[in-house]
Design goal:
Layout lengths: L1 H33 L7 H164 L7 H37 L6 H35 L1
Keywords: Coiled coil, Membrane, Transmembrane, Transmembrane helix
């Protein structure tokens, strides 16, 4: 601030000196012109002097105005200089902040370069993993194709099993129908047996009219014995059909030897029942003869 005030004061002094020098030169010119050989009238000289005086006064007024304008400009320039100094200080602060940011950016660049190197290594590992996964995917596709083939084969086998099951169900229905028919026949034979037994009981209660009655009872008993064996044979047939139905239910997995054993057992049971019936009839005949 002191340097600027000194420079403005010097400028003022220079301007004042120039104006004083110009005034002195003007006066010298006027004096020389007045003392020149070509003398003019005093009135004319006075008029010219008056004009020059007026011009001098006008020049002083103009000089004063110029001086004020120059002082205002000097003040404005000082204010501008102060503002520029403030801006320079701000720019210095910004420059320092920019330098600090630049250093941070350089450090970040170093860190980013390290991260880029790590990412490149990771990308290479991922590419290697991708190649391995591609090979494994191809192997999996082969396995999937094999499994699809096995699935298709299993599907066809399942359809075949369903068809066999449907056929077995049809045979089962037929066997059940035959079993029902056998049961109906068995019921009918039981009714016939019951009827024969009731007839035999009535014959026992009726007194013999002649001496030939034992022979007639013997004939009746001999005739009743074959009728007694008919339900037994029917029972054997129904049991065999029942075994066939059971074999169809287990889908043909039961051995045939087991069915033969059951048939033999049923035959023995039927023979035992026949013998028991025959012995019962014989006892009845003995009782009749005793009567």
């Amino acid at each position: 601030m002191a340097a600027s005030s000194k420079s403005s004061q010097t400028a003022k002094n220079v301007v004042i000196a120039l104006l004083a020098l110009w005034s002195i030169i003007s006066l010298i010119v006027i004096v020389v012109w007045a003392t020149s050989p070509d003398l003019k009238p005093s009135a004319q000289c006075r008029a010219e002097l008056q004009d020059l005086t007026e011009k001098l006064e006008g020049s002083r007024v103009v000089w004063g105005k110029h001086k004020e304008a120059l002082e205002e400009k000097v003040l404005e320039e000082r204010e501008k200089v102060d503002l520029q100094k403030t801006e320079i200080l701000l720019l210095h602060g910004r420059l320092n902040a920019t330098n600090a940011s630049l250093e941070e950016c350089q450090q970040e660049n170093v860190i980013l370069k390290g991260n880029i190197s790590a990412l490149q290594d990771t990308i290479e590992q991922l590419r290697h993993t991708q190649r391995n996964l591609t090979v494994e995917l191809r192997l999996r596709e082969d396995d999937i194709e094999t499994l699809q083939q096995n699935l298709t084969l299993a599907f066809h086998q399942t359809q075949s099993c369903f068809s066999l099951n449907a056929a077995a169900e049809s045979q089962k229905s037929a066997a059940e129908s035959q079993t029902k028919a056998c049961k109906t026949e068995l019921e009918y034979q039981k009714k016939q047996l019951q009827k024969c037994r009731s007839d035999s009981a009535v014959a026992k209660q009726t007194p013999p009219p002649q001496q030939k009655q034992p022979q007639q009872d013997k004939d009746d008993n001999s005739a009743a014995s074959p009728l007694t064996g008919i339900p037994v044979l029917t029972l054997l047939v129904c049991s065999a059909l029942h075994l066939i139905t059971y074999q169809l239910k287990v889908d043909g997995k039961q051995p045939a030897r087991l069915n033969v054993i059951h048939i033999y057992k049923l035959t023995d049971s039927a023979q035992w029942m026949t013998n028991s019936t025959a012995s019962t009839v014989a006892q009845d005949d003995g009782g009749a003869w005793a009567d």
